[in-house]
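Good morning,

Attaching, inline, the backbone tokens for the sequence recovery test we're adding to the shared suite. The designed sequence is right after.
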């Protein structure tokens, strides 16, 4: 037994020595934990492109990735010149120890493989967005590249054309906060719109960008002034203003933490319009200003975009747990009368889960109160009393209650009827009026009027 114990001890020593030798050998040949974690080498086309990048840089580098937009790769492979062969562009930051910026490499497929044919260096910290678009309809794609330089809100724009075997930088002296693509002039071709928040150097604006006739430069074809109080764009939606005109519905956060909407479209003369903003101080107040971050949308699914406008409800008998609900008139912008026309009015759930569309016959005759202790909204009649010189209002009888239950707590035995289930919650209602009451609402109308925000 003693001999076997010594033999086992000897084997353990041998194993330790072998492991140490292997580790030392790995260290000597450059094999380390970083190498172990590296993904396997690319093969085929991508491997050739990576080799072309390494040859062009001829040193250490870091790949840079676009931070927004449809193209998020540091190496974008695309048939730029419509010749059925892919080209590539790559973003790299050379590890040279100085602040040289980011290099954009154009890589072309040749008979001997992929080669870097041109390189442009931009003094930027990050790549914001890459847009690939044929701006002059010649069959060759242009590249619009946004760069983050000093501020996260203000970016610079550069543009490039590619005609094999060369790539050229176009003349472009534009900055922007948001770059969006859509067919704003309804000619079946995409357009480029630049939105800029106000800065110390430039006022807030919207610009439609076009290609020059010589195809060597981008220029601002038409410009519209925008609200200088906007500090952040919260949503940019492209949709129909009416059956014939489309535009951008731009929801922005303002300096006072409100949300406002601006509508940008092209008029018949081809000029950009922003009718909900005015430089005239007497009419500069935007009627869409609202405290809740509610965004423009096609809320009634009729194909036309609506803008939410606050419409204050009234109550004079709120208890400690109660709060007055917000109601919004969802309005279409009428180009011809320069007005906001109400398409529907809806009460907003304070928890941000749903809207309830108010029946037409309730207009100006009801209020809605949220009770946090019950997690429910009670819709009440509004009683108006006229005197010789004033009108006073008071809360009347309950018409309808909508309550949110946790899914495992709901039962029809509680006296409520289910409307919808969503994300672990059950939304249910209870009617307090008879069939003959002027405020009576049927089960079908309740279901049709309930708009779950998950579905928008």
């Amino acid at each position: 037994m003693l001999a076997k114990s010594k033999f086992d001890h000897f084997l353990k020593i041998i194993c330790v020595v072998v492991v140490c030798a292997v580790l030392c050998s790995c260290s000597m040949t450059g094999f380390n934990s970083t190498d172990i974690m590296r993904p396997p080498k690319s093969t085929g086309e991508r491997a050739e492109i990576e080799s072309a990048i390494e040859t062009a840089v001829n040193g250490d580098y870091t790949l840079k990735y676009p931070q927004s937009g449809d193209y998020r790769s540091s190496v974008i492979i695309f048939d730029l010149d419509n010749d059925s062969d892919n080209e590539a562009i790559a973003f790299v930051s050379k590890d040279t120890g100085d602040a040289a910026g980011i290099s954009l490499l154009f890589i072309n497929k040749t008979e001997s493989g992929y080669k870097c044919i041109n390189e442009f260096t931009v003094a930027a910290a990050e790549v914001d967005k890459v847009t690939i678009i044929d701006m002059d309809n010649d069959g060759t794609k242009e590249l619009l590249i946004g760069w983050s330089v000093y501020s996260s809100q203000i970016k610079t724009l550069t543009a490039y054309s590619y005609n094999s075997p060369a790539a050229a930088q176009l003349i472009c002296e534009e900055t922007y906060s948001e770059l969006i693509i859509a067919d704003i002039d309804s000619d079946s071709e995409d357009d480029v719109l630049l939105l800029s928040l106000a800065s110390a150097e430039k006022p807030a604006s919207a610009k439609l960008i076009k290609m020059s006739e010589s195809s060597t430069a981008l220029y601002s074809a038409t410009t519209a002034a925008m609200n200088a109080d906007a500090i952040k764009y919260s949503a940019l939606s492209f949709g129909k203003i009416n059956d014939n005109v489309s535009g951008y519905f731009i929801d922005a956060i303002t300096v006072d933490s409100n949300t406002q909407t601006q509508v940008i479209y092209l008029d018949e003369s081809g000029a950009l319009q922003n009718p909900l903003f005015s430089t005239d101080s007497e009419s500069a107040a935007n009627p869409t200003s609202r405290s809740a971050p509610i965004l423009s949308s096609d809320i009634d699914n009729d194909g036309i975009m609506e803008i939410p406008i606050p419409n204050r409800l009234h109550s004079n008998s709120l208890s400690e747990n109660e709060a007055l609900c917000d109601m919004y008139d969802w309005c279409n912008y009428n180009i011809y009368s320069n007005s906001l026309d109400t398409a529907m009015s809806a009460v907003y759930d304070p928890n941000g889960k749903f809207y309830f569309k108010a029946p037409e016959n309730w207009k100006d005759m009801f209020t809605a109160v949220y009770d946090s202790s019950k997690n429910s909204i009670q819709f009440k009649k509004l009683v108006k009393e006229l005197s010789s010189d004033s009108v006073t209002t008071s809360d009347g009888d309950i018409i309808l209650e909508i309550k949110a239950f946790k899914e495992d707590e709901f039962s029809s035995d509680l006296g409520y009827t289910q409307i919808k289930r969503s994300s672990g919650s059950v939304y249910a209602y209870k009617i307090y009026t008879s069939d003959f009451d002027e405020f009576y609402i049927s089960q079908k109308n309740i279901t049709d009027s309930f708009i779950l925000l998950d579905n928008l």
